[in-house]
């Protein structure tokens, strides 16, 4: 069965969804081609949309209920794959009703959460995230099963929602986040201390209309936001239905820079930059001169198609510098290749990094390979294609020695799931990031298909134990 995507270019078919309820238990995986690296002691988890019931009416890829695909790796036993729904309020309500009640969540942005976008580990907990709802705390059991603990509001201090892309500073233990919405203030910035204590909201009133702010970045001194040509047309959504997101070709994009520890939204400064429409931000940093901040983004060059015609979307990585004294914005293309779903070494979040890892769109949202980009002076690149009929997801970097302060930035592995559409096999791949061809050094054959999804992360065993506590 297929349910047409609103624009007919994406279809609800077996390569995107869904993994039936009978396939969701933990299963021991097949052969491991070579021994897995010792640093992979924990779990790789990817999240994505997987409708619990066949949807009514138009279906958007963003609408599916959040499902976690967790590969638990232990030195004591074979790898185990578990696929479980995040038991959100929406999921439980529809399960009790025995069918779908809300036909198109994405079009409504109505805070009936899907928890289908991203995962983050902070404040000693593992969270499944969706930007129009509160985080859902989850945990992995010793057997590798996935359990939903429930919505988490940080002792009532977190409002109605939080971004799906919080930024964790691994040096200080702090986490930075925001929320946006359809009513003023359209943007609110906030942070959590190393113990998970939420600090006061910083409402930002310098936006005149509802934005679409999916991601942002931090440096040691600042937080950076991008107000793109994509915004929310609330009244059109109310009276005509469908997605509230609209592009405005006459709008000039802006980069907002606010002090990292700002106490008031009036400290936000905006810098205009034409044709700048990133959905994700790879990283940001403070330049040594103290007067500029840098940022790496996959800039979407076809903004009018960015959210509806994925197959026609093109994004190319740019290095951007903002001069805080003169207001000038400088942009340099790093790669013209169509890449998205990028990441950096997590220990370099907010610091100047040299390497970026990203998925190659072929076309987006299908990822046919991964690329490693040197964004320093050399501007070099290395590629690993998955092969004919094989498509994967966002690559995640895992350091070989996470406790070493002397390790090279790229001394580690890229991990991701890859599905072969020809023979139906799914695999977990491990690639050496320092090899010239991003050599596959280990692969695990998975017991069932893992649908194409969104974001993921690797959580070490010690952190999994922390997240399983009370």
From TrEMBL:
GO annotation terms (biological process): carotene catabolic process
One Gene Ontology term, aspect cellular component: chloroplast stroma
Any one GO molecular function term: metal ion binding
Record's cofactor remark: Binds 1 Fe(2+) ion per subunit.
UniProtKB keywords: Dioxygenase, Iron, Metal-binding, Oxidoreductase
Residues that coordinate or bind Fe cation: 165, 214, 280, 455
Domain of life: Eukaryota
UniProt keyword annotation of Glycosyltransferase present: no
Coiled-coil region(s): none
Cofactor(s) listed: Fe(2+)
Stored PANTHER family: BETA-CAROTENE DIOXYGENASE, CAROTENOID CLEAVAGE DIOXYGENASE 4, CHLOROPLASTIC-RELATED
Annotated family: Belongs to the carotenoid oxygenase family.
Protein name: 9-cis-epoxycarotenoid dioxygenase
């Amino acid at each position: 069965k297929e349910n047409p995507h609103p624009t007919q270019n994406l279809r609800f078919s077996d390569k995107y969804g869904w993994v039936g309820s009978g396939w969701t238990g933990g299963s021991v995986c097949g052969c491991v081609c070579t021994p897995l690296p010792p640093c992979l002691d924990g779990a790789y988890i990817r999240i994505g949309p997987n409708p619990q019931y066949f949807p009514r009416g138009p279906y958007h890829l963003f609408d599916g209920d959040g499902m976690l695909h967790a590969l638990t790796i232990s030195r004591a036993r074979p790898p185990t794959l578990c696929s479980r729904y995040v038991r959100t309020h929406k999921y439980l309500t529809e399960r009790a009703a025995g069918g779908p009640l809300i036909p198109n969540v994405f079009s409504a942005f109505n805070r009936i959460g899907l928890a289908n976008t991203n995962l983050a580990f902070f404040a000693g907990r593992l969270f499944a995230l969706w930007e129009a709802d509160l985080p859902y705390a989850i945990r992995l059991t010793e057997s590798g099963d996935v359990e939903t603990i429930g919505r988490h509001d940080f002792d009532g201090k977190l409002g109605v929602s939080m971004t799906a892309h919080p930024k964790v500073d691994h040096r200080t233990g702090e986490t930075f986040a925001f929320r946006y919405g359809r009513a003023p203030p359209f943007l609110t910035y906030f942070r959590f201390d190393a113990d998970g204590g939420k600090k006061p909201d910083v409402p930002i009133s310098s936006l005149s209309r509802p934005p679409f702010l999916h991601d942002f970045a931090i440096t040691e001194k600042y937080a950076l936001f991008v107000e793109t040509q994509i915004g929310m047309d609330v009244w059109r959504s109310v009276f005509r239905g469908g997605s509230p997101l609209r592009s405005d070709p006459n709008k000039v994009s802006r980069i907002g820079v606010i002090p990292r520890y700002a106490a008031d939204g009036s400290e936000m400064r905006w810098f205009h930059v034409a044709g700048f429409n990133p959905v994700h931000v790879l990283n940001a940093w403070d330049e040594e001169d103290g007067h500029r901040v840098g940022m790496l983004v996959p800039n979407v060059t076809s903004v009018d198609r960015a959210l509806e015609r994925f197959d026609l979307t093109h994004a190319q990585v740019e290095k951007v510098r903002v001069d805080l004294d003169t207001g000038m914005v400088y942009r340099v293309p790093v790669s013209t290749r169509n890449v998205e779903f990028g990441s950096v070494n997590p220990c370099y979040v907010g610091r100047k990094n040299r390497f970026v890892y990203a998925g190659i769109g072929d076309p987006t949202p299908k990822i046919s390979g991964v690329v490693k980009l040197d964004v320093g002076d050399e501007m070099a690149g290395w590629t690993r294609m998955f092969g004919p009929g094989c498509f994967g997801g966002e690559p995640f970097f895992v350091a070989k020695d996470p406790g070493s302060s002397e390790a090279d930035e790229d001394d580690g592995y890229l991990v991701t799931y890859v599905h072969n559409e020809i023979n139906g096999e799914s695999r977990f791949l491990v690639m050496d990031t320092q090899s010239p061809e991003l050599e596959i050094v280990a692969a695990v054959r998975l017991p069932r298909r893992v649908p194409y999804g969104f974001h993921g992360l690797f959580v070490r065993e010690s952190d999994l134990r922390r997240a399983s506590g009370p």
